[in-house]
Specification:
With about 150 residues, the protein is an alpha/beta fold. The protein contains 7 helices and 5 strands, in the order E-H-E-H-E-H-H-H-H-E-H-E. The protein is globular and about 40 Å long. The relative contact order is 0.27. This is DUF488 domain-containing protein.
């Protein structure tokens, strides 16, 4: 791999629809790559799968893709969120999962270039989208990550 991949990440929580879509447009995002396990929750508001796909297309001609291999399992998510697990355990379990899934072989660099990994967390610090981006950079060594 030699061509640099420009990969963005964003969470929709604590953002209005206007803030969310303007941020994507200003960054020049070409496609949103949904990394959520559950993307149809009523709590997701404008970010529910069908609504988000429509808005992205209408507002900025931005493509929408949902890649479940980039999402945690329900067990890993529940242990962290519902059972108030610690971040270090979640991070280790999630990284073990994406190593096992070999996501670097399942996701095309062409899809990621100009793409934006989406999940619900407002900040990337304790979020699996950051772990995905960093893991792929370690594997490919040419991913420029920008957290929006």
């Amino acid at each position: 791999m030699n061509k640099e991949i420009n990969l963005f990440t964003i969470g929709f929580t604590q953002k209005s629809a206007e803030q969310f879509f303007e941020t994507l447009l200003k960054a020049g995002v070409q496609r949103v790559i949904d990394t959520r396990l559950n993307n149809v929750s009523q709590l997701a508001g404008f970010a529910k799968r069908k609504d988000l796909e429509y808005f992205l297309r209408k507002v900025g001609n931005i493509e929408y893709i949902h890649i479940l291999d980039l999402a945690p399992t329900q067990d890993i998510l529940d242990a962290y969120k519902k059972k108030k697990g610690d971040w270090e355990t979640y991070e280790k379990q999630f990284i073990d999962l994406i190593v096992k899934r070999k996501i670097e072989e399942k996701v095309s660099p062409d899809i990621l270039d100009g793409g934006c990994l989406l999940c619900s967390e407002a900040k990337p610090h304790h979020c699996h989208r950051r772990l995905v981006a960093e893991y792929l950079n370690k594997k490919w060594e040419n991913v420029k990550i920008c957290h929006l």
